[in-house]
Structure formats: structure tokens, C-alpha cells
Amino acid sequence: MKEGKKARFYICFLLLDLGLPDMDGMEVLHKIREWSEVPIIIVSARDQDKEKAAALDAGADDYLTKPFSATELMARIRVALRHYYRMNHAESEKRPDDTVYVNGGLKLDNGAHIAYKDGEEIHLTPLEYQLLLLFMQNPGKVLTYHTVLRKIWGEGYGEDTQVLRSVMASTRRKIERNPAKPEYIETEIGIGYRMREYEASK
């Protein structure tokens, strides 16, 4: 490197182990989130739901419990990078509120405020619509109960998940073929929900 030239480092994504020797991984996560939105995937032997939820609420994009396969890790990395690209692409183009979101057989026209399932319009309540919109904007990403409550109901709503579970149940009845075995919005037990990411239907 020529004298006077400064090195530049570009981070595509970060794998962060919570069990670091010199500093707790959660502290590292908080420090990184103070200045960067780079995708962060937590890899840890800690498998308690509270620890997973805390990491996701603190800004992690995903959480993998050891041991895990290389195939699963690569799939999670691809999801995190796609989500990061979408968010940055939207910001760079100042994407308006009339975005049309498509995931498999689901389509949400945010400009017209209409949702479709397999080409047929479905009628959603305002809360159901906001809930579906949140997940359509974040396919493949785990959203904790706390995150969803904060985004939909606001900061002061607390930790009561009963209303969230109720709205989720009614939403699933409208978008899932079998609400008892959801194909779109899956439950991450003890943590929250994740919308599976599909290619658009032909």
C-alpha cells in the first residue's frame, strides 16, 4: 500500500459468536448497531429463547444454534443479504409507499391497499393488513414478538402477546391453506415469527 493511502474495509455480512473470549457478543452487537446496518447472523451454543429474542431485538438478523450444517448457514446468509439489498435499494431509490410486494402466491399492493392470494383479492382488517405488510417487507427474517408489537401497536403497548396471537390467527385464516400448518408465516417458538420466502407464482 502506498504511503498516505488509507485502507478501506467493506463488510458484506458478519457472523458473530456470543461466546467471545474478550468481550460478550451482545456487547459487540450493540456497538456495531450504533453505526452500521450490516447483516449480522448470531452463531452460538446458547439455546435459551430469551437469549435468542434479546439478540434479535438488539438488531441481529438471524440466530443459529450450534451445531448447524453448512447448508443451513449458507441459506441464512443468502436470506440476510437479500433483505439487506432490498432495504438499501429501496432507500437509494426513495421507494414510495405504493410498492407492490410479492411472495409466492401472496401479493400486496400497498398503493391500492389491497392484498391478493393466488390472484384473488382477500379482505383484511386494518391490523391484519399492517401485520401482513410488515412480514411481506421482511421475508426470511425472524421478527420477535416485541418487534412486531412495537411496529404495529407502538412502544407503549408492553409485552402482552395475546392480541398479537389473535390477529396473527385471523390473518393466517385468510392467507394460509391450512392455518394449523402455516406455509407463509411460521412460528419461531418462544421468539416470534418468520415469513418464508418464495418465488412469485407464475
Written overview of the protein:
- By secondary structure, the protein is α+β, with helices and mostly antiparallel strands.
- It has helices spanning 25-33, 49-57, 70-92, 126-136, 145-153, 162-175; strands at residues 14-17, 40-44, 62-65, 100-103, 106-109, 114-117, 120-122, 142-144, 185-188, 192-195.
- The strands form three sheets. Strands 4-5-6-7 form a four-stranded antiparallel β-sheet, with helices on one face. A three-stranded parallel β-sheet has the order 1-2-3, with helices on both faces.
- It starts with 13 loop residues before the first strand and ends in a 7-residue tail after the last strand.
- The model has no long low-confidence stretch (mean pLDDT 84).
Topology overview:
Layout: E1 14-17, H1 25-33, E2 40-44, H2 49-57, E3 62-65, H3 70-92, E4 100-103, E5 106-109, E6 114-117, E7 120-122, H4 126-136, E8 142-144, H5 145-153, H6 162-175, E9 185-188, E10 192-195
Parallel strand pairs: 1-2, 2-3
Antiparallel strand pairs: 4-5, 5-6, 6-7, 8-10, 9-10
Helix pairs in contact: 4-6
